[in-house]
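Onboarding guide, step 5: your first structure request.
Type a short instruction followed by the sequence, for example:

Predict the 3D structure of this protein.
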Amino acid sequence: MKARLPQQQIPVAASLAVLLLLYGGGCALFPHFGSLRVLINLFGDNAFLGIAAVGTTFVILSGGIDLSVGSVVAFTGILVARLVAQGVAPPAALAIALLLGALFGGLMGLLIQAFDLPPFLVTLGGMFLARGLGFMVHAESIAITHPFYDGFIAQTLAIRVSSRLSIPFTAVCLVAVVAGATALARWTPFGRNVYALGSNEASARLMGLPVARTKVGVYALAGFLSALGGCVATFYMQSGNPASFVGLELDAIAAAVIGGTILRGGVGFIPGTLVGVLILGLIQTLITFQGDLNTWWTRIIIGALLFLFILLQEMISRFARRS
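The system replies with structure tokens like these:
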């Protein structure tokens, strides 16, 4: 009997095929595209987006949406930079930022749950609030110059591959977050509750699942991961800027959808989101290697891919209902 791919895994398989096609095409077109350095940079350069996209995936799996991601990442970056500039130890500044991110997300989740408010509107308000708070912390970019960043993060925590090449700590953070989030989603009661909530909230209530606690926990987790993405962004850029990362929440949603997460909720895989992030990064890298293309082609190609994957998801859903 011929083995068949489960319907829920078809979008993930399609996104993986697109990733391999893009990477293979890049290797065929450009001599150095297949080098280990390019592959490592693909993970390191997109680490903060990938970490934020994992949090977005949990929210979408629960049947919600989060538009505050980019603003929280920017707020976290400028907060850490300002605290370090004022003499706060970097580990303490990072811990404060992570705590505030989790509290901010949890507060949005509490408002959504307690007052039955639309997640779109609540997180839209959170987007403006976090962006404004970032400008209140400091209105301009702040460079981070501290031995913790220059030495410990950039050198000590980097994994040396050769005398000229190392895996940056940002890439390590991305892989660690994806691995931890995958375990959380697949093998814990919280993860199973998230899937049940996104599939059918009314049924989840009738089954006696902790819907309220799960919903607040999802947004708290998303806020924490957005703040962690902001911390990783400071490792990458060694600065904070309240005006940065405008539209990052849309990139995070696009990565989740391209990675096979269905916007209706209840269906998706965390590793698929990583594939979606790598696809977005590969498109940008290919355009950079080409050299004579406008960077807006990145948005055009991402938009076309989104249309294709949304259409694929809708076709699969209709086929499943008829079956």
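Each response can be followed by summary notes, for example: The chain has one domain: 7-322.
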